[in-house]
Amino acid sequence: xxxxxxxxxxQLLQQQQGTLGQLLALIEQETTALVERNADTLLQLAGDKxxxxxxxxxxxxxxxxxxxxxxxxxxxxxxxxxxxQQLLAQCQLKNQSNGKLIELCAASVNRxxxxxxxxxxxxxxxxxxxxxxxxxxxxxxDVEA
Length: 145
Prior knowledge:
With 145 residues, the protein is mainly α. The chain is 71% helix and 4% strand. It has a two-stranded antiparallel sheet with strand order 1-2. Strand 1 and strand 2 form a beta hairpin. Helix 1 packs antiparallel against helix 2 and helix 1 packs parallel to helix 3. The N terminus is likely disordered.
């Protein structure tokens, strides 16, 4: 990648907007994968998301260190910065929404696990010939036939 001074601010902003657009699309795919409970897709998207976040950080660093960064506050670059900020805000909002969806999914899975545990324990409890409690896992271990 060329040195920050060699790249025009406008090119860096376009690159940032492109990466943010990709991130927004990826977060929307993540929402679909969460709703469908597709773990394989979620794992793939998490890796892709990490790469995009690294690209964003790298471009942001180049922008912040650019010798002409003061131009970012003046037209026409200020408009590009505003568009990038709007894309970022959309990404953050959708990502927060996905975080809440993840929490709901996790709570649902926990409730299901607890219900299965209670069900398994309730059906596995029995009594032996002497009235002592026994579980299904030990039931029939004494049988020699």
